[in-house]
Amino acid sequence: MKEKFNMKINETYITDCGNLLVITKIFKNGKFYADEISGAGIEGIECVKQEKNKIGQGYPVYGVLDKNSELIINRTSFYDDKAMARAVCKQMNDSITEKSKPYSFKKAYLIIPNL
Q1: What values do phi and psi take at 27, rounded to 5?
Q2: Which of 58, 78, 94 is the last residue of a domain?
Q3: Residue pair 57/10 in contact by the 8 Å Cβ criterion
Q4: Within 13 Å of residue 50, how many CA atoms lie on the same side as its CB?
Q5: Among 36, 76, 31, residue whose Cα is nearest residue 50
Q6: How far, in Å, CA of 23 to CA of 55, rounded?
Q7: Element (H, E) at 66
Q8: How far from each other are the two terminal CA atoms of the chain, in whole angstroms?
Q9: Could you tell me if 83 and 46 lie in one domain?
Q10: Phi-psi region for residue 96, left (φ > 0), alpha (ψ -120 to 50) or beta?
Q11: Nearest in space to 64 (alpha carbons), one of 45, 78, 50
């Protein structure tokens, strides 16, 4: 049986201000959408200028977070499918009796540098 491998490869650059820029969509007119990763988190932006400092490739993944916004890696792993991460998060929230649901999921990137 052939396994479905869903990961999208995205070019990753370093910006002039030191943030990571992961290209998510390129248009024919030269504009592109990207996720800019900084110390404050991930922000989707629209750009017209291509960065010159390519450092590698970024793979979008999803992780489950606890109520302190810390990644739970001892009980779950990274998921390449948003629906799978959502289902794991829902299952974890359904298994507790608290009224507030402490688990959420968040998008992140695994960056593979050029060698």
Answers
A1: -100, 160
A2: 58
A3: yes
A4: 8
A5: 31
A6: 12
A7: none
A8: 33
A9: no
A10: beta
A11: 78
| Whether residue 75 is found in the same domain as residue 99 | yes
Angstrom distance (rounded) from CA 61 to CA 28: 27
The answer to whether 79 and 87 are in contact (CB under 8 A) is: no
Q: Is residue 67 located within the same domain as residue 48?
A: no
Residue 11 has pLDDT above 80, yes or no: yes
Read off the tokens for 82.
């948003």
Of 58, 75, 93, the one marking the end of a domain is 58
| pLDDT tens, position by position, 77-87 | 788 888 988 99
Rounded Cα distance, 1 and 93, in Å: 32
Single pTM value for the model: 0.71
**In this structure, are residues 9 and 56 in contact, taking their beta carbons and an 8 Å threshold?**
no
